[in-house]
Amino acid sequence: MANLESKRSSLQPAPPEASRANRITSVQSGALKVLSADQRVAYERDGFIALPGLIGSDWLKRLQQVTSKFVDQSRSLTQSTAVFDLEADHTPTHPRIRRLVSPADIDPTFWQFASESILVDVVEDLLGPDIKFHHSKLNFKAPGGGEEVKWHQDIQFWPHTNYSPLTLGVFLADVVPEMGNVGFVPGSHLLDLFDQYNGDDWVGCLSREDLGNLDLDGAVYPCGPAGTVTVHNCRTVHGSARNQSNQERPLLLQTYAAADAYVYTDLLRKSPRGDSLIRGRPARWARHDSRPCQVGPSRVRTIFEVQQCEV
Fold it and tell me: What b-and-e string marks burial along 116-146, b requiring 16 or more CB atoms within 10 Å of the CB?
């Protein structure tokens, strides 16, 4: 009987907190490809990091050229489509795009960059060798306005079984203060998830009451030359103000997850590239975080449509 009890004890799964600690230790034991040890520690501590000028000129030129192609395509539009989310004052002569939706699904250059570039090495340094691509988007933030993105957390928009998902933002132009650059609240990824509903209505942002409990004055707004990359965890509270400059601020965003993170919804899994393994081996077991995850609505809308209460 004692041997049986000993065997049963040895088969018991580790507590979630211990499992998470073991995973972090396992990831950190590997050789780093891009990040320094201090940068990896900073990501775990603060929930974000910034990597100035990481993307080289060759990639930048290709990304800027293909972005210009889509801007030109938008000139013929008078309203938003499944691909182009437009500002209300968008015109053929003065295109004002809020978002290009899922660029990795609609152009091979964006997909190659998301799946094969140095970005994936950064992700491996943080998540380990088994990586899934989740989705991409390109937020433009037009000059002289460019709608704000209210303070929010990402994971409620696309909930997963664990909190490994992270997003890398690539500056496609030089970013200075007053351009509506994204701000991150340090350490907010370690707090409980916030409710991004207002009663029964999905609003995709934090309430005024919750914002009052955060140190927004301590938020960090990375700037830097074109090619700078930010990385933030899916639980990190972040947002951006309106663009008060006379320059556009295009920000290419790619989201990845560990292979053992599985989505609770089908919002993006049905897209051509969504939830696809891009490095390493597929997972045979889903990893579940003990902390609960709020689930957003099933209808797909951009964060601008949600936060501005557009139909």
Answer: ebbbbebbbbbbbebbbbbbbbbbbbbbeeb
